[in-house]
Design brief:
The protein is an alpha/beta fold. The protein has a domain of 95 residues: Elongation Factor Tu (Ef-tu), domain 3, CATH 2.40.30.10. Helix content is 22%, strand content 35%. It has seven helices and 16 strands. A seven-stranded antiparallel beta sheet has the order 4-3-7-1-2-6-5. A seven-stranded mixed beta sheet has the order 11-10-9-8-12-13-16, sandwiched between helices. It is globular, with a radius of gyration of 17 Å. The two termini are 29 Å apart. Bound molecules: flavin-adenine dinucleotide and FE2/S2 (inorganic) cluster (FES).
Length: 269
């Protein structure tokens, strides 16, 4: 089964119309684990947010002592809980990482426009580094999911077991060959692209650009999750503008509201 780009866009239109509104919930941290150096896996109990969450959306977390919230992708939504996996980058994520099981975290979610997964067919879910977590819940939505997860080295590999349970096929790549296939996610994508109906990707921009180019070459629809610095997270402050095009006209979109997931063809790389 192969969906055309137009069909996928129609699915996306239907999805936007049915997206439910976000909410704020004081969410109890019920599980916390450091799954690789400086990478934390949080499970927070937030029944009203978890039931609305869709693949590829994100949560905006309040950090004690900071004015701005921090955007973290929804890694998974199970029952009444959300799973959020993040890397310590600066002061905000460092402070978040200090939260203890039993603490309450102020979570605004689910935000943005996520991936649109067609009900039938095979989808390749590609994650690079800290772009891997949102592909887990996304992979669970597809009839047949091929996960391609790229990391720098063996020490950075995260969530491989979770993906094994959720997807039909999992390919792990490392830049230095210390685990899985030696190479980039695009090397793995090349081996399966002829059997996929859609490519979904999240990771560093050069990776997204290379994935989008390969999908285009094979005439396969592609959706990419973009990352920009954020302020409000709900389309009010204009901090997160990214250059996009529609009908060959260039303009700007809000990553927080129109994205983070865009059709690869819409992005001005
Ligand atoms: C839609 C989206 C989803 C994301 N999902 C994840 C995820 O699942 N896991 C993960 O580890 N990281 C994720 N990030 C990146 C994460 O938000 C930043 O690493 C984090 O905000 C850095 O905050 P800090 O205070 O530690 O760093 P600082 O550099 O001290 O932050 C200063 C300010 O810049 C903003 N900022 C800094 N870097 C980024 C960035 N890359 N993107 C957006 N805002 C930024 C912060 O929100 C803050 O307002 C995501 C970003 C976006 C936009
Ligand atoms: S973060 Fe404020 S408009 Fe997107």
């Amino acid at each position: 089964m192969c969906y055309t780009i137009k069909q996928i866009n129609n699915f996306m239109g239907e999805r936007v119309a049915t997206i439910m509104k976000y909410d704020v919930e004081l969410s109890r941290l019920i599980k916390k684990e450091e799954i690789a150096q400086g990478i934390f896996d949080f499970t927070v109990k937030c029944p009203s947010l978890a039931k609305k969450a869709q693949a590829g959306q994100f949560a905006h977390l309040a950090v004690p002592g900071k004015t701005l919230r921090r955007p973290i992708s929804i890694c998974d939504a199970v029952g009444d809980s959300l799973r959020l996996v993040f890397q310590v980058r600066g002061q905000g994520t460092e402070k978040l990482a200090q939260a203890k099981v039993g603490d309450d975290i102020d979570v605004l979610a689910p935000l943005g426009h996520g991936f649109t997964i067609p009900p039938r067919g095979t989808v390749a879910f590609i994650g690079g580094g800290i772009g891997v977590p949102p592909m887990l819940y996304s992979g669970k939505q597809a009839e047949k999911a091929i996960a391609i997860l790229g990391f720098r080295d063996k020490a950075g590999v995260i969530l491989a077991k979770d993906f094994e349970e959720a997807c039909s096929q999992v390919i792990v790549t490392t830049d230095d060959g210390s685990f899985g296939l030696h190479g980039f996610v695009t090397d793995a994508l090349r081996t399966v692209i002829d059997k996929v109906d859609l490519v979904c990707a999240c990771g560093p921009t050069p990776m997204l650009k290379a994935v989008a180019a390969m999908a285009r070459e094979h005439n396969t629809p592609c959706q990419v999750s973009m990352e920009e610095r954020m302020g409000c997270g709900v389309g009010a402050c204009l901090v997160c503008a990214c250059k996009t095009k529609k009908d060959n006209k260039e303009g700007y979109s809000h990553v927080c509201k129109n994205g983070p997931v865009f059709n690869a063809e819409e992005v001005v790389w």
